[in-house]
Write a structure and sequence with these properties.
The protein is of the alpha/beta class. It is about 35% helix and about 15% strand. The chain has a five-stranded parallel beta sheet with strand order 2-1-6-5-7, with helices on both faces. A two-stranded antiparallel sheet has the order 3-4. Helix 4 (about 95-100) links the parallel strand 5 and strand 6 (about 105-110). The protein is elongated and about 75 Å long. It binds S-adenosylmethionine.
């Protein structure tokens, strides 16, 4: 996979692309990441990429010409382009999975008051990472890159992404590590039992209970597997006793 980021601040990505799992995936050739400096496409002497909004108002708006020239310099037939925008479709794990199947994704990062609205129709999608406003799209693009790259084959141990929160419509069960007793706070006995079927049952139960408590919206939408249904019925039976 190839990821191209269009930004005014490529220097913000230095640590991100050289550290931990992301750094290793790039080094191992699982993904290639390149940056396009939008300012390089400005025509005037001062390399302006933004101007005042028509109709008045605060701040500066990023101009069509440098942004679209930058975009067109990297777009190919296989590219999937996304504009980072608080007014976009809200990003999800399902979207990360879908993007991990693409050959080339382009992430267009705004700054200031955002983009001239005529740019919107030149990208495949506007994407928001949540209902809040960031200074620029760089952090949003890193969120997308991180969540996609870790799903690529070879980036992390196979199978370890499949049981995680949001993968199957539920939040992940609680995890523990050594020591089994930390200053009197003990790990649930079942996890030390070595009884795999019972551990699986406990984990599914915790996953269902946690999702219902923390994210009732997700719980409502979730279609339980027959196994989850069996465990959920058991929980309800216990509650009624
Ligand atoms: N004036 C814009 C509005 O009210 O919708 C906000 C512009 S914001 C200050 C500047 C840039 O940050 C945006 O163009 C976008 O690229 C990025 N950005 C801000 N919040 C974002 C979010 N929640 N998701 C994705 N990108 C975001």
């Amino acid at each position: 996979m190839r990821i191209t980021v269009l930004t005014l601040f490529p220097e913000m990505y230095q640590d991100f692309i050289s550290t931990s799992i992301i750094g290793r995936a790039i080094k191992n050739g699982i993904v290639s990441v390149d940056f396009v400096q939008i300012r390089d496409f400005a025509h005037d002497h001062y390399k302006h990429v933004d101007d005042k909004p028509f109709g008045g108002g605060y701040g500066q708006v990023m101009k069509c010409q440098p942004v679209l020239d930058a975009l067109n310099s990297v777009k190919t037939e296989v590219s999937y382009s996304m504009m980072m925008s608080p007014a976009g479709n809200v990003y999800t794990q399902a979207k990360a999975r879908a993007l991990s199947q693409k050959d080339h994704i382009i992430l267009l990062c705004g700054h200031y008051e955002g983009f001239d609205a005529r740019i919107n129709k030149h990208v495949d999608e506007l994407v928001s990472i949540g209902d809040y406003v960031l200074t620029g799209g760089e952090m949003a693009s890193m969120v997308i890159m991180d969540s996609v790259i870790r799903l690529l084959e070879g980036a992390i141990r196979q199978g370890s992404t499949e049981e995680e929160s949001h993968e199957n419509g539920l939040l992940e069960y609680p995890q523990y590590t050594q020591p089994a007793d930390y200053q009197g706070d003990k790990v649930p006995d079942i996890l030390l039992s070595g009884h795999h079927a019972k551990i699986q049952e406990w984990r599914t139960k915790q996953s269902l209970l946690l999702t219902k408590q923390v994210r009732p919206d997700m719980f409502e939408k979730h279609t339980m597997t027959p196994y989850e249904k069996k465990i959920w019925d058991k929980i309800q039976q216990e509650e009624n006793e």
